[in-house]
């Protein structure tokens, strides 16, 4: 099991001065955004797009960077996590993004110029993955599971509803703001990671630079036979309702 420290120097770049160009990976839980973020980080030209907007991460970062306000915090993060060519990335679920969107002074700091929207075709598999992660706290393959998950049909149904609602809200936001995001599908990302990374590079008008490639550990798929068994059981149970 790899020791993972998202706050550590593995994701830092040489100190950046100035205002970066920013992009957002718009996501929902368990649809491959960690995988995509790590692959983009490994290019060395698209920053380190991790989950900076969650409330817990915001508190941790404020302590680590001795930042009194979110405005100060993100200015300091820009200096640490912007790649030398000037790109800063962040990934966020809708509730995380909304709290930034609601604070105009903070949102304006980013002035996002690119949006990437990642979805998963198999929503049931996504929901089951989320329920399992909620139970065993293994949110990424670098985490050791804390307990054995227990099948919970109600939790799966709730996860499906939340995923659908968040996805719809992202699409409403894009439509209202006149944004055309790059659409990324989880299953396509897993099938051909390099092709997906190339699409993102083109979307951001950035070229690969072999001299800037970073040795970044890549998250692995966590699904097992349990996930398939739960999916079969859920389909069977809901088909009889």
Characterization of this structure:
The structure is a single chain. The chain is of the alpha/beta class. The chain has a single domain (17-239), classed as Rossmann fold, CATH 3.40.50. The chain is 49% helix and 10% strand. It has helices at residues 33-43, 55-64, 70-81, 94-101, 104-110, 123-136, 153-177, 186-191, 193-203, 225-239, and strands spanning 21-27, 87-93, 114-119, 182-185. It has a four-stranded parallel sheet, sandwiched between helices. The longest helix has 25 residues, at 153-177. The mean pLDDT is 90.
- General shape: globular
SS field, number of helical segments: 10
Q: At the first level of CATH, what is the class?
A: Alpha Beta
Determine Rg (CA atoms, Å).
Answer: 18 Å
- Fraction in helix: 40-55%
Strand content: 5-15%
CATH topology: Rossmann fold
Could you give the distance between the termini? 41 Å
Walk across the major sheet and give the strand order: 2-1-3-4
Average of the residue pLDDT scores: 90
Indicate the CATH architecture: 3-Layer(aba) Sandwich
By CATH, the superfamily comes out as P-loop containing nucleotide triphosphate hydrolases
**Order of helix and strand elements from N to C terminus:** EHHHEHHEHHEHHH
Q: What's the story with the biggest beta sheet? A: 4 strands, parallel
Brief characterization of the structure:
With 241 residues, this protein is an alpha/beta fold.
Features:
241 residues, alpha/beta, Rossmann fold, four-stranded parallel β-sheet, 10% strand
Secondary-structure blueprint of this entry?
Elements: E1 21-27, H1 33-43, H2 55-64, H3 70-81, E2 87-93, H4 94-101, H5 104-110, E3 114-119, H6 123-136, H7 153-177, E4 182-185, H8 186-191, H9 193-203, H10 225-239
Parallel strand pairs: 1-2, 1-3, 3-4
Helix pairs in contact: 6-7, 6-10
């Amino acid at each position: 099991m790899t020791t993972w420290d998202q706050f550590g120097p593995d994701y830092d770049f040489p100190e950046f001065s100035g205002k970066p160009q920013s992009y957002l990976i718009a996501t929902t839980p368990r649809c491959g955004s960690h995988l995509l973020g790590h692959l983009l980080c490994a290019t060395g030209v698209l920053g380190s797009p991790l989950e900076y907007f969650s409330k817990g991460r915001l508190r941790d970062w404020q302590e680590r960077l001795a930042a009194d306000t979110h405005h100060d915090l993100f200015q300091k993060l820009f200096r640490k996590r912007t790649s030398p060519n000037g790109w800063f990335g962040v990934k966020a679920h809708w509730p995380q993004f909304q709290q930034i969107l609601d604070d105009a002074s903070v949102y304006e700091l980013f002035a996002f110029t690119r949006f990437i929207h990642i979805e998963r075709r198999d929503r049931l598999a996504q929901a089951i993955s989320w329920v399992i992660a909620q139970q065993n706290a293994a949110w990424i393959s670098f985490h050791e599971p804390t307990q054995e998950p227990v099948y919970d049909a109600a939790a799966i149904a709730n996860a499906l509803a939340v995923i659908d609602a968040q996805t719809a809200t992202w699409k409403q936001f894009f439509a209202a703001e006149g944004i055309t995001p790059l659409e990324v599908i989880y299953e396509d990302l897993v099938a051909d990671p390099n092709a997906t990374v190339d699409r993102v590079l083109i979307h951001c008008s950035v070229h690969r630079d072999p001299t800037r490639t970073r040795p970044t550990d890549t998250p692995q798929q966590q699904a097992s036979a349990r996930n398939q068994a739960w999916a079969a059981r859920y389909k069977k149970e809901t088909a009889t309702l």
